[in-house]
């Protein structure tokens, strides 16, 4: 429900202007894309580095051919050949598991769980990856213990390794500042009486895409 328009905010002209999911989601999308762009362009300043990174190419091939084996031959898969390609791919993946997940799920359930872990770190292989017979037996007997052993430690979970890189850390701080700005914009929109889909008598404010959440069950806060 949007038309590409370079003169419009975010490059899109919404068919329905008072559409909270789209309006707030575009704020988050742009913030995520800028953070990803800073990160990718720092480590991959040219096309050759993307093409030569065999681990990156193997990851993208696995996403397409194993993660979505039923769709592996579709023509719409992006080609990973440039930094811009990688930026678009990563932004899409991050958006789906953060903003989109928050909007679709957090407003529906009265509870949610959060494991303080970083998905890019695992301390051991999952039991299905070249399993030893003993490991597989342990997993079948007490799967929760094996999973906890795989998850990062509390120290690993709270101290991202990239924070030690000055450029990347600065890029993340800019991203974090943008999220705080988005929080204020959404709050302002929720108090704007002209926006009838999120403000008014009997209308609940649209909080699903607020970046932050207070302690407890709030139905707000985007996974980061």
TrEMBL record:
Q: What is this protein called?
A: Lipoxygenase domain-containing protein
Signal peptide coordinates: none
Q: Return any one Pfam family short name.
A: Lipoxygenase
Source organism of this protein record = Nelumbo nucifera
What GO MF annotations does this protein's record show? metal ion binding; oxidoreductase activity, acting on single donors with incorporation of molecular oxygen, incorporation of two atoms of oxygen
Give the matching PANTHER family: LIPOXYGENASE
Q: Tell me a GO biological process for this protein.
A: lipid oxidation
Q: Which InterPro entries match?
A: LipOase, LipOase_C, LipOase_C_sf
Name the UniProt key words of this record, in alphabetical order.
Answer: Dioxygenase, Metal-binding, Oxidoreductase
Q: Which residues form the Lipoxygenase domain?
A: 1-224
Asked if the keyword Oxidoreductase belongs to this entry, the reply reads: yes
């Amino acid at each position: 429900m949007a038309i590409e328009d370079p003169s419009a905010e975010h490059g899109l002209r919404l068919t329905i202007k008072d559409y909270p999911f789209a309006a707030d989601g575009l704020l988050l999308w742009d913030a995520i894309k800028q953070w990803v762009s800073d990160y990718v362009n720092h480590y991959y300043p040219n096309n050759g580095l993307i093409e030569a990174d065999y681990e990156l190419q193997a990851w993208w091939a696995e996403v397409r051919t194993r993660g979505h084996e039923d769709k592996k031959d579709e023509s719409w898969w992006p080609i990973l050949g440039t930094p811009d390609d990688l930026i678009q791919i990563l932004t899409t993946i991050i958006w789906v598991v953060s903003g989109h997940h928050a909007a679709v799920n957090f407003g529906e359930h009265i509870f949610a769980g959060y494991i303080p872990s970083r998905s890019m770190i695992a301390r051991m292989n999952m039991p299905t990856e070249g399993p030893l017979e003993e490991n597989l037996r342990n997993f079948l007997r007490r799967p929760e213990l094996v999973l906890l052993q795989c998850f990062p430690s509390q120290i690993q979970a709270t101290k991202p390794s990239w924070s030690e890189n000055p450029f990347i850390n600065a890029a993340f701080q800019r991203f974090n500042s943008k999220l705080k700005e988005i929080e204020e914009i959404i709050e302002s929109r929720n108090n704007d009486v002209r926006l009838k889909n999120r403000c008014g008598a009997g209308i609940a404010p649209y909080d699903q895409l607020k970046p932050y959440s207070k302690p407890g069950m709030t139905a707000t806060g985007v996974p980061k």
